[in-house]
Write a structure and sequence with these properties.
Number of strands: 7
Structural class: alpha+beta
Order of helices and strands: EEEEEEEHH
Radius of gyration: 14 Å
Mean pLDDT: 90
Distance between the termini: 27 Å
Largest sheet: 4 strands, antiparallel
Strand content: 25-35%
Helix content: 10-25%
Strand order of the largest sheet: 1-7-6-5
Low-confidence stretches: none
């Protein structure tokens, strides 16, 4: 894991890490990366990790109750649902599971 000191604050208050700019730690953003839909610079204590998640080819339909219920049930059994350094944590948070 990288230390939080490896990320730098810009004059506008944003956090820059590995050439990418984030609004802050633990703040998801849409990514221009063709492989994943979202990215977040996760921070736990003094450690940070860049987490990418979400299939860029799929539409998110979390407003449809049946789909939300199904997704939350499926993803609940995947490890990392309480770990900020896992993609599952951020995906479940986006779906409000």
């Amino acid at each position: 894991m990288a230390k939080a000191s490896s990320a730098e604050r810009t004059s506008s208050g944003r956090v820059k890490y590995r050439g990418e700019s984030f609004a802050g730690f633990n703040k998801p953003k849409r990514t221009s990366n063709a492989n994943k839909k979202f990215a977040v610079l996760a921070k736990k204590g003094d450690e940070i990790k860049l987490v990418r998640y979400g299939d860029s080819d799929m539409k998110i339909k979390k407003t449809i109750p049946a789909r939300k219920k199904s997704y939350c049930a499926r993803s609940g059994g995947i490890s990392g649902k309480n770990d900020k350094f896992s993609a599952n944590y951020w995906s479940r948070k986006a779906w409000n599971c």
